[in-house]
Amino acid sequence: LQAAARHSSTPLRLSTSLRRGSSRGTMADEGKGGEDKGLVVVFGATGQSGRGVIKAALANGYRVRAVARDPAKIKAQDGLEAVKGDASDLDSIANAIDGADYVVSVLWLKG
Q1: 27, 14 in Cβ contact below 8 A?
Q2: pLDDT score at 75
Q3: CA–CA dist 106, 54 (Å, integer)
Q4: Is 27:21 a contact under the CB 8 Å cutoff?
Q5: DSSP 3-state of 41
Q6: What's residue 98's pLDDT?
Q7: What integer best gives the mean pLDDT of the chain?
Q8: Sorting pLDDT into bands at 50, 70 and 90, what band is 110?
Q9: Rg of the Cα atoms in the chain
Q10: What's the pLDDT score for residue 82?
């Protein structure tokens, strides 16, 4: 996921605190050797940063659930599930993250 961190001088990594059952470390430490690396849910999937996270996660063997208000904007790919969701709706968030191993939000919050 380092490729998605273009606007930061630090590589993008998910901290252990964001991980369910947080004893397993960061995504970069996961699943060496071809086993299932887990499901990454991405909020903000249609934006430039979201697309970068999706590309990097898929390239590194993760399954991805991309959440968007308009999932038709998400290009179909192996390992990618596009779902309709709204980050301002708690039920929508709960449905989107069901079964997730990692959750990444690259949403731009308007203040």
Answers
A1: yes
A2: 93
A3: 11
A4: no
A5: strand
A6: 97
A7: 78
A8: confident
A9: 13
A10: 97
The answer for residues whose C-beta is within 8 angstroms of residue 55's C-beta and 6 or more apart is: 3, 4
Does pLDDT of 15 surpass 80? no
On whether the CB atoms of residues 52 and 58 are closer than 8 A, the answer is no
Residue with tokens 């990454």: 40
Measuring CA to CA, how many Å separate 93 from each of 11, 36, 52, 69, 100?
26, 24, 21, 12, 11
Q: CA distances (Å), 89 to each of 34, 42, 72, 86, 95, in order?
A: 35, 15, 20, 6, 10
Q: What is the pLDDT of residues 27-50, one digit of tens each?
A: 555 444 566 799 999 999 999 999
d(CA 34, CA 85): 30
Q: DSSP labels for 87-107? A: TT-HHHHHHHHTT-SEEEE-P
**Mapping DSSP to helix (H, G, I), strand (E, B) and coil, where does residue 62 land?**
coil
> What residues contact 33, with CB distance under 8 A and at least 6 apart?
none
Residue of 52, 44, 48, 40 lying closest to 80 (CA atoms): 40
